[in-house]
Amino acid sequence: MNDNKGGEQMGGLKNQANTTGFTYYVLPKSPLEQTLRAVLETMSRALHV
To answer: pTM (2 decimals)?
Structure first.
């Protein structure tokens, strides 16, 4: 069950990454967007380790 839950988290993370990418094209670069991207990268690394 833990593996399944982890898979769902990865799916959600990919959705967030796609949303962040979309926002990147729509909005100008801002400190908030850079912070979101940094948090997303940190979460991704934490899940992979």
So the answer is: 0.36
